[in-house]
Amino acid sequence: MKILEVIKLIDNTKRMYDCELISIDEEKMIVEHIRERDYDISVAILKAGGMTRAIYWKDRNFHVWKMFAPDKELIGYYINICENVQISRKQIIWTDLVLDLWVNNSGSIYWLDEDEVKEYKLKGLLSENQISVIQKTKHYLEHNYQNIISEANKCLDKK
Question: Which range of residues forms the domain containing residue 88?
Answer without folding.
Answer: 2-156
